[in-house]
Design goal:
Elements (H helix, E strand, L loop, with lengths): L32 E3 L6 H8 L3 H8 L12 E3 L1 H10 L8 E3 L6 H8 L3 H8 L12 E3 L12 H6 L11 E3 L6 H8 L3 H8 L12 E3 L17 H9 L1 H13 L4 H12 L19 H12 L8 H18 L4 H10 L1 H7 L6 H13 L3
Length: 366
């Protein structure tokens, strides 16, 4: 179920079907945009505005060009280029405050550094998920040259016997998170080794170099959260306690509830998506009303932190029971809606979302 289409009796909870950054579909006020009308297609919009379809896909980080919805605001690629030229790099600035609509590709281009450098400097587990208000360190912004190939050549292990394990051919449904986990390396390492400009866009048949794959052991202990993430978690510890309390109340694994809440909002009650999802658990108003009536027996005020968390966690408990503890289906239903999960299983566009939450579950002790 699309996040932007109502299913009875449930509505999808997450902010958007896009796999890109949180709130990435929101255009800045200065951007020339086109608002999608009922019946519109990317082909029609491209002809109407003289912009190639692939330019619209790139400018808006669209995961599936066949899935756009009425009311969606799409940037025109020409505007994105003019903005990139008009906005000078700020070498002195060592941090960047993420704004609605930002993604790592735009931020890297703005500061003249690579996406891989920002991913590595900030310990970003999923490069396609950043959120408004997040503060990113921009490494070496004053001197950062474009990726040089010589250092990569000197750091490669020389052992010829490991050559067969040093590449990976991307298959349908693969994401960098899946590939990195499979080979026991980090997403940032793969991004850097292959000069990937946009980590959320890889394609079937693409051959990726896996640096140090022959010697990289699989993690056998609980992975540590990146330092930037730990700092945010410490500041939001009061919200964490609320999530853990409600998870125990409804017999939901605490790590699962914490991971979903972090993926959706970064444990922030003030987040409201462009689709209208509210708060820590990013619950749509219609869903909150249904959960309140059918499961809690009381009206839910989604703008109250405690009630927002209770509604989201109670719905996770419902999905755990409905799908017999199948985590993939539970998360698919939370992301794309129960009706869609019942009828179609896990959508391809839901897989990166599920993979990211599974990585967070390990961090939170699941």
């Amino acid at each position: 179920m699309s996040r932007h289409r109502l299913f009875v009796p449930l509505v999808g909870l997450a902010a958007t079907l896009a796999v890109g950054p949180m709130l990435a579909g929101v255009a800045l006020a200065a951007d020339p945009v086109v608002v999608v009308r009922p019946g519109d297609t990317l082909t029609g919009i491209s002809k109407r505005h003289g912009v190639e379809v692939r330019e619209l896909v790139r400018a808006n980080d669209l995961v599936d060009p066949n899935r756009i919805f009425a009311g969606q605001r799409l940037r025109l690629r020409q505007a994105a280029r003019r903005e990139a030229k008009a906005r000078p790099a700020t070498p002195a600035a060592r941090t960047h405050l993420v704004r609605p609509g930002d993604n790592l590709t735009h931020i890297a281009r703005r500061h003249g550094v690579s996406v891989a450098a920002i991913v590595g400097a900030n310990g970003i587990a999923n490069p396609s998920r950043i959120y408004a208000g997040q503060r990113l360190e921009i490494p070496g912004a004053a001197k950062a040259p474009r990726a040089a190939k010589a250092p990569r050549a000197t750091t490669r292990p020389a052992a010829p016997a490991a050559a067969s394990a040093r590449s990976h051919t991307v298959r349908l449904g693969d994401t960098l998170i899946h590939i990195a986990r499979r080979h026991g390396v980090s997403v940032a390492a793969i991004v850097g080794a292959n000069g990937i400009a946009n980590p959320s866009r890889i394609y079937a048949g693409q051959r990726l170099e896996i640096p140090g794959a022959a010697k990289a052991p699989r993690a056998t202990t609980r992975p540590a959260a990146p330092s930037s993430m730990r700092a945010l978690m410490e500041r939001r510890v009061s919200v964490r306690r609320v999530i853990a309390r409600e998870a125990r109340r409804y017999d939901v694994p605490v790590a699962l509830a914490l991971a979903v809440a972090w993926q959706e909002s970064g444990w922030q009650q003030g987040v409201v998506s462009h689709a209208g999802a509210i708060g820590v658990m990013q619950v749509m108003p219609a869903t909150g009303e249904w959960v309140g009536q059918a499961m809690l027996g009381a009206r839910v005020d989604l703008r109250d932190t405690g009630q927002n968390v209770r509604a989201g966690v109670r719905l996770l408990a419902h999905y755990l029971e409905r799908y017999g503890g199948n985590t993939d289906l539970v998360l698919a239903a939370y992301y794309q809606g129960q009706t869609a999960a019942d009828r179609h299983g896990v959508y391809r566009v839901s897989r990166p979302y599920i993979a990211s939450i599974r990585a967070l579950i390990r961090i939170f002790g699941g």
